[in-house]
Design goal:
Elements lengths: L2 H19 L9 E2 L11 H12 L4 E2 L5 H16 L7 E10 L4 E9 L2 H13 L12 E7 L2 E7 L4 H15 L6
Antiparallel strand pairs: 1-3, 2-3, 3-4, 4-6, 5-6
Helix pairs in contact: 2-5
Amino acid sequence: MTRRYLRTLVPIVIYGLLAGALPAPLEPQVQHCAETIRPITDGRLQRAIDDLKSKNPGLEFQPDEHPCLHARETISALSRTLGRNYLTGLSGYELVKVINGEGYFTVERFKSGARNDLTKLETALTRRTPHKLATEANTSYDVFVGGESLVLMTSSGVGEDANSKLFHQIHQTFGGTPPR
């Protein structure tokens, strides 16, 4: 090889090696349903997820191909579980899917100008025993209200305890009602 090629090739190879060795910056994991529900743009959930990922680097995040369908299915499952739709005044939505090695869980944030409805929904969900949604899957949940938002974690049956601990970390960073 000529010197000219070496001068070009060596920095490229070194940069490539270093890029693989250095941690990548945190990429956004939060998804929105912009088709029918306004996205929430305050960044609170993403900051809580970034904090969770920094404390638990083994977590993986999986994009949902259809976040709007996911939102509708969750609202439907909540309505079937409680016999009432508390989210009629919905004004924003976000979704994150987290894979923790043992199982997976989703974190969904619903925003509403009717904070009272969110508080009633949280109360109705926390009163239910066990904390399972009326769905075909063995889906457990946890929930809290923060400001004008309700944050819901739904978890697969596998890894439920680990998922709850991770959700508690999100809750601490996000803020909101104290865990019950």
